[in-house]
Amino acid sequence: MDKTDKEGPNYQFEAGWPDDAIVIGIDEAGRGPWAGPVVAAAFWIAPDKLDDVPKGLTDSKKLSALARRRIETALMMGPHLFGVGEASSREIDEIGLLPATFAAMDRAISTLTERLDKPITAILVDGNLVPPLPSCQGAEIQAIIKGDSRSLSIAAASIMAKEARDRQMCILDETYPVYGFAKHKGYGTKAHQEALYTHGPCPEHRRSFKPIQAIINKS
Predict the structure, then answer these.
(1) Is residue 188 one of the residues assigned to a domain?
(2) I need a labelling partner for 131 at 20 to 30 A (CA). Which of 60, 95, 178, 197 fits?
C-alpha cells in the first residue's frame, strides 16, 4: 500500500509545480449505477490557503454521508474554487459511458475556468486514463492511480461530485419513487432489480447497460 494511502491525501502532487501555476484535481461519480447521470467535479485548492482545507478530507468512498456533507459544506464556504459538470443517462446511451464521463469532466473544468483569474496549468485526474479535455488545451494532464486517496484536490473533487450526484438522485426519487433512487442512488441493488422487474425502466435508466437491456428484452 502506498504511504499516502495510509496517511490520507496530501498536497505533494500539486506542489510539484511553480508557485504561480494553477493545478486542479478532477474526479467523477456515478459510472457504475444503472440510472441517472455521471457527474464530475474539478477543484482548485488555493496554495496560500492550505490551512483552510477541512480536516478529514479524503476519498469520498471512505467517508460516511454525514462526513461528506460536512466536508462539502466547508469546501463550498472556503476560499477554494470548484466546478461541476455532468452527462445524462441519455448521453451515456448515445455515446458510451467513458466518452460521457470525459464530457462531464470537460464541463466541470469549463465551469471552474470561468471562476479562475488565469489559465489552468495542470490537471490531476483520478485513475489511469488521460481524458481528452478540449476546454483546457495547453494544460498538462496527469492520471494518478488512487488519486482520490493521494491528492487533496482530487479528494475534494471526489466529494463534490459524489454529493452533487446524490442530490440529483434524491430529486429523481421524487419523480420516480417506485425505484428507491434516494436509497441506492441508481446502483444495482436487489431492491432496485425487483423494482425494475415490476415496473420496467424509467427514462433515467441507462438502456445501454446489459442489466437494463436484459429486463427490457424480458418484458
Answers:
(1) no
(2) 60
pLDDT at 3: 44
Domain count, the chain: 1
d(CA 193, CA 38): 20
Question: Is the residue at 211 inside a domain?
Answer: no
Range of the domain at 156: 3-176
Please, which residues have CB within 8 angstroms of residue 42's CB and are 6 or more apart in sequence?
Answer: 24, 25, 26, 82, 83, 84, 85, 105, 108, 109, 111, 112, 123, 157
143-165 residue pLDDT tens: 999 999 999 999 999 999 999 99
What's the average pLDDT block by block, 10 residues per block, for the chain (219 residues)?
A: 64 92 98 98 96 94 95 96 98 98 98 96 96 93 96 98 98 98 97 96 97 87
Residue 165 φ/ψ, nearest 5 degrees: -70, -40
> Residue 72: which CATH number?
3.30.420.10
Residue 201 lies in a domain: no
